[in-house]
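Workshop exercise sheet. Pairs work together: one partner reads the sequence aloud, the other fills in the structure field after running the prediction. Swap roles for the next sheet.
Pair: D.N. / O.F.
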Amino acid sequence: MKFGQAQPARRLEDVRFLTGKGRYVDDIAPQNALRAWFLRSDRAHADITGLDVSAARAAPGVHLVLTAADLQSAGVLTAMKGARVTNRDGSRGAAPLRPVLAEGRVRFVGEAVALIVADTLEAAKDAAELVEFDAEERPVALSLEPGGATIHPEAPENRAFDYGIGHERETADSLAKSAHVVRLEVLHNRVIVNPMEPRGAWAEWDGSRLHLCVNGQGVWTQKQELARMLRLPADAVRVTNPDVGGGFGMKAMTYPEYVVIAQAARMLGRPVRWMSERGEGMLTDNGGRDLIARAEMGFDENLKITAYRVTVLSNLGAYNSQYGQPIQSELFSKVLTGVYDIPHAWLNTIGTYTNTAPVDAYRGAGRPEAILTIERMMDEAARVLGADPFDLRRRNFIRSFPYRTITGSFIDVGDFDRVLSRAVAEADVAGFPARKKDSEAKGLLRGMGVATYIESILGDEDETARLVLDPDGGATLYVGTQSNGQGHETVFARMTAGMTGIDETMIRVVQGDSDLIAKGGGTGGSRSVTVQGTATRATVHQMVAAMAEFLGQELGLADVGFTDHVFGAPGSNLRLTLAEAAELARQKGRSDLCDRSATITLEGRSFPNGTHICEVEIDPETGALRMDRYTVVDDFGTLIAPELAIGQVHGGIAQGYGQAVMEDAAHDANGQLLAASFMDYAMPRADDLPFFGFTSEPVPSILNPFGMKGCGEAGTVGALGAVSNAVRDALAGRGVARVDMPFMPQRIWSWLQAAG
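Structure field:
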């Protein structure tokens, strides 16, 4: 740590991951655990007229079969909680109950109807075939427009909520008076998250306490919900998260399966394990995006933005998920106006229930959707108004900080012009005409797209850290966040080493255990390093101050300080490391000094921002698209671990490219998912993407002591707009007036044919 925090380093956890020693949920399930399998609905909307599980209960190897009626008889609360927002009229959004096993009706294909627990997975699957499940089909509602067949009586016209924020009247008046008004509709296709490790969990009951091990994004919400639904005291529930192979927001929620297998373990007195299969996950994991945004932007004679109005139609799926209602309303609004100084803006989001799996958080959660909409609008406005897309952005950037947006977000610092200018240079924008000419010589269409994004960090502003100095000279750090593969162990160990002088390889990071860590905010919203790092810093400062006071009293010294990782005092030969001071404290019966904890609350959330510039080539004969060049300049403030930040950006761009170009969770008219395997659902591969150019242009945040800004979701937030604008630019010369994601070859070819 001689040269500070922001230096490259190898990830400590990769040794076990790359040698097959990772401890994922299915690796550490108890050897005597029974296997669980869920019987799921094959219809999108139907009344259950018969459910006979008697033959399944009598099948070989079966230990338990549970239905909704069985859970109710056992006293389980079968209804899950879902988030709600406040409507424009002050009322609350709809709150239909979501049962953990279908009660009376099924509302999407894949909804769990019954649980079968058996000695083996094969026996459980065989028994599921014996269940007599009869249902009378009902009309299926799939439109994002309110109306159609009623899914919940509590939600007339399937309307979940009607949310509004901003200056409605002023925005309308300003648009009416604007010299120019540009209108655009942006379709945000539904995607399936598909983490490398599907969802899974196992539960065990010792007669008085429940333990649920689940591959989630934090343990405390799971603990609270299990205790509530199973009617257990909070101290009778323990939840753990082991290594997790990707979450991306989708694993942050409580799902029905976890509650049901936990109850099964209680009833059987034996461990029960469940691991989702890939097709099962595609049907039942919370989906992402799935909305229509209709935008209008006004400009004056000098091409300064006068007003911006967006109407969003958002699909919630069949039920409110844990964060479903707030995502396309409250979270969308956080960055509604992007990086632009807009005097008047209005967002109206209408949430709709459909007969599909619930929709919830996916990398960025509302922020990618808002930035894609406004960045598509800025490019469209430049095209319609005959302006340069880079210049139009510069004219309208926020330039005075701190800045409070119309929707209430407080942006502490930024220099968007500097970031854009660096990106223009790094991407060699000046050389684009020559590259375009070279592409044309090969019969290809080349387009360039730019997106200037901003992201609002989300999640709990509070976080706790506990640091224990161990007798071996190392330390154990207990954190309230949860790694899903981002490299948290490396970052937190390095940060702690930099503050204490203890070798980072001697620092053990403990996470994801509700028995060991009283509270925490988990991972999500790009919050982890900022809040956990700040909490760790406060804990170290508290420990050092207490240890310095002890040393002064014990050794009769004044003004004991901690400099360059060594305790010392003026006029004294005292030179003790923190580990040596801890050993002295233990010898003197003051081991309490070796165990300290601190909880912090951030002053505010940071706003990472940046510019993405993408170039694509399209073959007009086939519609095939190739991403040729990609340049990113990001302002993440102080980079704590640059190599990990760059990795996050690369992964985020790949996920944004996947949604923009090839991913589409489409359903047919009967609500059947048309892409329920990797034979039909495309995912980006390494050879789909070029090497990315990444440059940091930092403006340190003033809202945390490190000056850092989150980075986990930034790649996706910027990529959707950059790729979409590049495709639009490539096709504009051929008369294609509208493009919609995903940009699959057949669709591109069809647009070109229609344009003549």
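Discussion prompt: The chain has a mean pLDDT of 96. What would you look at next?
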